[in-house]
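Ticket #4471: structure output looks truncated?

Reporter: J.K.
Steps to reproduce: submitted the chain below (302 residues) through the standard prediction queue, then opened the result file.
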Amino acid sequence: MLIRQVILATLFMMSMMDFAQAQAVSDSKGNSTSQAIDNEKIEANKKKYLTGLRKIESDADLKRAEALTEAKGVTKYDILYLGEDYKSIHNTTFSNFIEYGGYQWAADVYVNDDFVIAAKVIRKGTQADKDKAIATLRALVEEVTPQSIEREKIIASQLGKPAPFFSVTDVDGVKYDLNELRSKVVVLNFWFIGCGPCKKEMPELNKMVEKYKGKDVVFLAFEVNNNTADKIKAVTKDSFHFTQIPSRRGEISEQYKIKTYPTSYVIDQSGIIRFGLAAYNPFKLPEMDMTIENLLKNKNTK
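Returned output as attached by the reporter:
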């Protein structure tokens, strides 16, 4: 009886193994078939949209194409935008991938016979693409202009000085009084809905909020376009983790002499401004983070 049970159990296990192997082969064939179909669709889309166009291969050619495109009066709305699968997508969707994708994406540019830009295709960026994008951004944000000189002068004049007083209410009705925030590090950010550079820096600012969670640091963001609390909450729910303060230009922003957006400040436990950053510059955000960290360390060593 025992031998019969062992034999039956063995036969059952063998049948299950055969079934699993058959299923694996079936799944493999299914995946291969699916991949083949996807590849066929991609090739069909490429043929549909890119036939007669050629891809730009150098920076010099890209500059020439951009100049000719502008001279012909061609706008971004006249250009075809394609996703990684070569399906047509909206130009805003395409731009968001490039602008807010953390250097993960790049674009191939295609021109027509007149060397005018006709299509752009998104693709996974390489390390070279990332390095190039970072170098381009650094050159842009560190460019010295009359406006940047004025911003730096304003920030320099504020460092080491008492922060202008404010008493405000956040989108949930909670009051924040600067005098009552003494003993805490206070981080301010001035921004507005629709500000592209403001949106770009939010992921890095959110990392600071997470890093100092549970610490004596208060993060306050002043949305200066006089929007309602409900609208600000809806817009920032998943994207900006600072405590949101409804505001308007000419109020707190004027006291802090804000000339551009975004602008951020770090105020120490005694109410003194220790750091300021006017305009989007991701290369200075680590300095902002270090300022917060050092202020907390100094307090703990006293």
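Triage note (M.O.): checked the attachment and the full token line is present. Residues 1-20, 22-26 have pLDDT under 50 and may be disordered.
Status: closed, working as intended.
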